[in-house]
Specification:
heterodimer; A: three-stranded antiparallel β-sheet; B: mainly beta; globular
Chain lengths: 106, 118
């Protein structure tokens, strides 16, 4: 079965740039999405089709996807960005999630 | 504005069938999109359970396929989930969601916690 691999945790200082990776076989040939989930809340879509932001998502969130790796980048990270982040792709009509990355802003 | 609301028993006994309903408002399920169920065990990551396409096709996670049924009641604009022969490992928050493939999963319900315990 297809797997998406994320680092369990990433730390970043306020105002700096955070990068969260998601690896999968030929992931660049598929569309990657990213979700933010804060404690006790439902996930929120922050990036779709590799690099597009839904309405209402701040410009500091961006994405890329090439080869075997998709990357979520948060520029000028703020304390409010501390959350779990999940990558996701569609593989043969099924939905696959990465294991999630806990972003700590300290 | 699309809204999704899960409902169902919060406690299910081992070996029984978990049954949940998702009421959708603001959009007709039969008009388009995929509609799916996703779960999250306490303290763990997201796991896709399966999806229903408005044309009537269903798609399931291969690891759960033998135990899962997803269906739609278009008259009530509701999505349903049945998961049979549950065990403690099925304890999770269950979300219903709209998949705007390939534009992402754009609407999520608030989630409902289901605990499997005798």
């Amino acid at each position: 079965s297809y797997e998406l691999t994320q680092p369990p945790s990433v730390s970043v200082s306020p105002g700096q740039t955070a990068s969260i990776t998601c690896s999968g076989d030929k992931l660049g040939d598929k569309y990657a999405c990213w979700y933010q989930q804060k404690p006790g809340q439902s996930p929120v879509l922050v990036i779709y089709q590799d690099n597009k932001r839904p309405s209402g998502i701040p410009e500091r969130f961006s994405g890329s996807n090439s080869g075997n790796t998709a990357t979520l980048t948060i520029s000028g990270t703020q304390a409010m960005d501390e959350a779990d982040y999940y990558c996701q792709a569609w593989v043969s009509s099924t939905v696959v999630f990465g294991g999630g990355t806990k972003l700590t802003v300290l | 504005q699309v809204q999704l609301q899960e409902s169902g028993p919060g406690l299910v006994k081992p070996s029984e069938t978990l049954s949940l309903t998702c009421a959708v408002s603001g959009y007709s399920i039969s008009s388009g999109y995929y509609w799916g169920w996703i779960r999250q065990p306490p303290g763990k990551g997201l796991e896709w359970i399966g999806s229903f396409y408005h044309s009537g096709s269903t798609y399931y996670n291969p690891s759960l396929k033998s135990r899962v049924t997803i269906s739609v009641d278009t008259s009530k604009n509701q999505l349903s989930l049945k998961l049979s022969s549950v065990t403690a490992s099925d304890t999770a928050v269950y979300y219903c969601a709209r998949e705007a493939r390939p534009q992402g999963i754009d609407y999520w319900g608030q989630g409902t916690l289901v605990t499997v315990s005798s």
